[in-house]
Write a structure and sequence with these properties.
The structure is a homodimer. By secondary structure, chain A is an alpha/beta fold. Chain A contains ten helices and nine strands. The first copy, chain A, has a six-stranded parallel beta sheet with strand order 3-2-1-4-5-6, sandwiched between helices. In chain A, strands 7-8-9 form a three-stranded mixed beta sheet, with helices on one face. The two termini of chain A are about 30 Å apart. Chains A and B meet through helix 6, helix 7, helix 8, helix 9 and helix 10 of A and helix 6, helix 7, helix 8, helix 9 and helix 10 of B.
Chain lengths: ~290, ~290
């Protein structure tokens, strides 16, 4: 297999992820051209050393990274391909299946497009070259995707210090529902149960609850967009969890009448929980990494 | 207020909590007599330096700590009071309201009994003198409880390095439902959702999920006993959470048909989650402590 060489990359969207990728590439001597619909964001990234602003007459780069919010990816990809930003394309959105379908329906070139999703520990910090160090970076090539395109994106992933993991968009989206979207919703429901509760009750609540409600600090707008793209799998996973909790709470309500049927139901749930937890700890790809 | 002096304490039950209390008392020069229905457990605690085995002819101690599982507390308390182990009594069970009612119905002396619950970070380690350092230790005296008894137990709490917090059994039990029992059930339901899922999906699941499913490692038997004593409040809190999740998952299921009504529902849930999380971080008693 010939080694692909990345000489110049265009990064479209200079937010946390785009700028961090650009910084990692610059640290490896790759030329980076930056584009954003907000000129101030490009200027900021340039000041951080992430590359130079893209010029109209630039020749096509080896690769363009579309690092914009999920709902904007397809339109931005189409525009970038029309204008010939690069020979090959990838994106970084946390949802894949629906985005891939939309891109195909919209008539994007799918041969040179490798859908991607870098996974990193959720952070509120600013862009940095090592954001993806030691993380998994999912790539979801379709049947028609050119193998050379996948190879080129894998070079980018490794320059960012991450490990490429190839899987289908569907598997990716189910994993994201389990690992990110459902935990956000459940965490929020648990934190919501604390609204209106006596301050005296809340005073006693310790770090166990702090752990399980941490995700409830997230910005609603970000999650709503992701859910719109991943609703099917999230509904699938969440409805099973909700059904378990409805059943257990109904059984517990009967406990006051001396009906101890909850014991069987709760024991079953807890054993399944033990089993799921064991499966999780047995096969994590990146034990110290979160998913974003 | 005269300072109560603890000269000798009887610890009934030499598990993690009982032995840790005994070690803290010994470190402060208090005499400790140990009792357990398993002689080997007493011998082990004696070897750890937690005190001496109680002898039949011992005079009543200043205080007896009943450190046995919740469902055994009332019978053990009654027996200890009958045999005159001490002048005053306290317990360490994580459930209070139902236990207090049972003790009163059983005819225990309620004047000299101070129901208690030391809170400490969940741990799988062995007994140690500093287990309760910096933690809250809830005391739930009833109307008839003698103030001198409360004062004496507060001395014990402080010798263990903890902070006494007085509240009603009902407030305590609602707090425990929020802080421990409900998180266990929800955590288990989330982990249970991972049973039978493709290994490829589980490989991608990161530390966010590890945090929210950590409690699913617990032993079912321990939780079942606690739930039996606190079913009312757990059902109350859990049914609200389950209802939120049922509603959101039903709305998400409609999203595939282009119905975006989930946006309003999810936004509402996430905002309530933000609010509950803010309330939690604003008024924690012991930010670095869990509840057990």
């Amino acid at each position: 297999m010939a080694t692909s060489v990345l000489r110049r990359v265009v990064v479209v969207g200079t937010g946390l992820v785009g700028t961090s990728i650009a910084l990692a590439l610059r640290a490896n001597g790759v030329e980076v051209s930056l584009v954003d619909h907000e000129p101030a964001a490009v200027a900021m990234a340039v000041r951080l050393g992430a590359g130079v602003a893209m010029a109209d007459h630039d020749p096509p780069a080896d690769l363009a990274v579309i690092a914009v919010p999920p709902s904007a990816v397809v339109a931005v990809l189409e525009d970038a391909q029309d204008r010939g930003f690069a020979r090959l394309y990838t994106d970084v959105a946390a949802v894949k299946g629906r985005l891939i379908g939309d891109a195909r329906r919209r008539g994007c070139d799918m041969v040179g497009f490798v859908p991607g999703h870098p996974i990193y520990k959720t952070t509120s910090g600013s862009a940095r070259a090592d954001l993806f160090h030691g993380s998994a970076w999912v790539l979801c090539p379709e049947e028609e995707t050119c193998p050379g395109a996948v190879e080129m994106v894998e070079v980018l992933v490794r320059l960012c210090g991450a490990e490429p993991v190839v899987m289908t968009g569907e598997i990716h989206d189910r994993a994201t529902a389990h690992s990110l979207h459902v935990p956000y919703l459940v965490s929020s429901a648990m934190a919501a149960a604390l609204v209106g509760v006596d301050a005296e009750v809340r005073r006693l609540v310790g770090s166990d609850v702090r752990d399980v409600t941490r995700l409830a600090e997230a910005e609603p707008a970000d999650l709503i967009e992701a859910l719109t793209h991943n609703a099917k799998w999230v509904a699938d996973v969440l409805s099973g969890i909700a059904a378990d909790l409805v059943e257990v709470s109904a059984a517990l309500q009967l406990c006051g009448t001396g009906d101890l049927s909850f014991v069987g139901q709760v024991t079953d749930l807890l054993h399944r929980g033990n089993e799921g937890r064991r499966a999780l700890t047995a096969c994590g790809l990146a034990p110290d990494q979160g998913t974003s």
